[in-house]
């Protein structure tokens, strides 16, 4: 599992390490600076000059140490420092005094003076920014964006909130870094919102504080195929279809069955033993002409759904894709009234709209899969906070929104996007970051969300717990899109799953 830690957690870890007397703050700062130097030399081995921008806090102390280490290697180094030396923490002050070269004020004019450096190092604000970046510093960051493509950010591009990935520059955004060097662990802001675009390549440097990780409490994880849940994807030689569950995907009426058929195909491809489409009588012939391995059952309304669910072998449901809002509301009532045995259920698309604003807890075995617009209908207050410009840091994040939504709903919430956030009501939270090498831009096509709903439903049918099904499904969905690549349409995604599964579990299991 790949962990992310917040700014406050990182401070707690470093404080615990220092208070243990096992390491000093100066040593941690020196290790951090050494990591920055090693990373930029690896990226640009021919560079020989640098301009280091130092802020008034510990990030600035890292910058002064970087300047000293680069100068010791024979580099020509300019240092520009922000006002506020009287507020500089002791370790940062020590490194400022250890720098023996000239220091210019951190202004737009000073930034433009002299020969341009091979590399610029942004060490103005890292994890600790808690207020909007305004005045001269905001103008410097705006100017920095046009100075050089070789920009290294220490921890984060200044003005980026590392807990949310949101800009703390009113009306603007931080300068984009080509390389960001962070310490110990990546932070949520590296993978959320603007983070992937502004941070460039992120390098994580071990500064030797891993032994104190537990003092900071729980973390957010990045979804990767090394997570334990992925081991459940394999099938044993003794397996048969009923050992991997029976998924029931509910469809809309005539002319509205395509979305549910996409979901059903995905559920079958991901390994559900059986998948049945529950279809109203008006659409039976339409669906029968389109399917082969999938099964078909007439479900006109609540009564026939209750009859279908009398079969205990049905282990998971999917409501929403192409269902129609009125039909979705009627069928959901069957599940919420307690007259049938609860099933693990994906609630997507039209069913989310029918659900409306969530004011109380829902069945704990449900998985809600809203995109941004649907999330705003379900949790309008949380969406409003996400949409408001931050007035300080840490800014309200998609992690915060999904976590609070999961607690309110009492079930797993999957807030979809390039940075899909999966949250459980017990506080567990994960991010699937489809950025950089993991980017899947071709998922921006009609029907791709229906396929994700089907993948998660199929995993639920196979016995995955809701949170594990949502995390695993999000990764597999994006991996299938990357496998297909440009030109992808939603129908391609289920057909790409065998290759993706083989890459995770091997071609023979």
The fraction of residues in strands falls at 15-25%
Helical fraction: 25-40%
Content-based structural category? alpha/beta
Total domain modules: 2
Measure the end-to-end span.
22 Å
What is the topology, as strand order, of the major beta sheet?
Answer: 1-9-18-17-16-15-14-13-10-11-12
Sheet with most strands: 11 strands, mixed
Report the principal-axis shape.
elongated
* Number of helices, where a helix is a run of at least 4 consecutive DSSP H or I residues: 18
Q: Give Rg in angstroms.
A: 26 Å
* Counted beta strands: 18
Stretches where pLDDT is under 50 for at least 5 consecutive residues are none
In CATH terms, the superfamily of the largest domain is Ribokinase
- Under CATH at level 1, the class of the largest domain stands as Alpha Beta
The CATH architecture term of the largest domain is 3-Layer(aba) Sandwich
- Integer average pLDDT: 94
CATH topology of the largest domain: UDP-N-acetylmuramoyl-L-alanine:D-glutamate ligase
Give an overview of the whole structure:
- The chain is an alpha/beta fold and 509 residues long.
- The chain has two domains: 221 residues, YjeF N-terminal domain (Rossmann fold), CATH 3.40.50.10260; 278 residues, Ribokinase (UDP-N-acetylmuramoyl-L-alanine:D-glutamate ligase), CATH 3.40.1190.20.
- The chain is built from 18 helices and 18 strands.
- Strands 1-9-18-17-16-15-14-13-10-11-12 form an eleven-stranded mixed beta sheet, with helices on both faces. A seven-stranded parallel beta sheet has the order 4-3-2-5-6-7-8, covered by helices on one side.
- It is elongated and about 80 Å long.
């Amino acid at each position: 599992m790949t962990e992310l830690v917040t700014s406050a957690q990182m401070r707690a870890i470093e404080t615990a390490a220092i208070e243990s007397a096992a390491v000093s703050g100066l040593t941690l700062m020196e290790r951090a600076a050494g990591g920055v130097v090693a990373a930029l030399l690896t990226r640009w081995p021919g560079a020989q000059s640098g301009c280091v921008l130092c802020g008034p806090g510990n990030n600035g102390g890292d910058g002064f140490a970087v300047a000293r280490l680069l100068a010791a290697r024979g580099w020509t180094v300019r240092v520009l420092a922000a006002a506020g030396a009287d507020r500089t923490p002791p370790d940062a002050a020590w490194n400022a005094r250890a720098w023996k070269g000239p220091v210019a004020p951190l202004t737009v004019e000073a930034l433009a003076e002299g020969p341009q450096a091979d590399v610029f190092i942004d060490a103005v604000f890292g994890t600790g920014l808690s207020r909007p970046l305004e005045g001269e510093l905001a103008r410097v960051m705006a100017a920095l964006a046009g100075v050089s493509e070789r920009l290294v950010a220490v921890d984060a591009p200044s003005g980026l909130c590392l807990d949310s990935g949101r800009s703390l520059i009113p009306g603007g955004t931080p300068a984009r870094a080509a390389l960001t060097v962070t310490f110990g662990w990546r932070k949520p802001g590296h993978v959320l919102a603007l983070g992937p675009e502004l941070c460039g390549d992120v390098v994580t440097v071990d500064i030797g504080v891993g032994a104190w990780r537990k003092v900071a409490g729980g973390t957010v994880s990045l979804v990767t195929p090394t997570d334990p849940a992925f081991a459940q994807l394999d099938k044993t030689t003794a397996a048969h279809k009923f050992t991997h569950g029976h998924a029931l995907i509910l469809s809309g009426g005539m002319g509205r069955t395509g979305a549910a058929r996409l979901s059903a195909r995905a559920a079958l491809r991901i390994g559900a033993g059986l998948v049945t489409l529950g279809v109203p009588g008006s659409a039976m012939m339409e669906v029968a002409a389109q399917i082969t391995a999938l099964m078909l059952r007439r479900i006109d309304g609540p009564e026939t759904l209750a009859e279908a669910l009398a079969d205990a072998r049905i282990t998971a449901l999917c409501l929403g894709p192409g269902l129609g809002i009125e039909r979705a509301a009627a069928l959901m009532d069957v599940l919420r009234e307690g007259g049938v045995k609860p099933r693990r259920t994906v609630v997507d698309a039209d069913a989310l709209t029918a659900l409306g604003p969530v004011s109380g807890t829902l069945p704990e075995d449900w998985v809600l899969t809203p995109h941004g617009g649907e999330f705003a209908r379900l949790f309008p207050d949380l969406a409003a906070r996400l949409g408001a410009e931050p007035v300080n840091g840490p800014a309200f994040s998609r992690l915060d929104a999904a976590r609070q939504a999961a607690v309110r709903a009492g079930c797993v919430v999957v807030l979809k996007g390039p940075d899909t956030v999966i949250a459980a009501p017990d506080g567990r939270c994960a991010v699937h970051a489809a950025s950089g090498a993991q980017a899947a831009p071709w998922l921006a096509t009609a029907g791709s969300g229906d396929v994700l709903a089907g993948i998660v439903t199929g995993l639920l049918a196979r016995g995955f717990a809701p949170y594990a099904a949502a995390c695993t499904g999000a990764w597999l969905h994006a991996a299938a899109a990357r496998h297909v690549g440009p030109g992808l349409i939603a129908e391609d995604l289920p057909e790409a799953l065998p290759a993706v599964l083989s890459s995770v579990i091997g071609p023979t299991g």
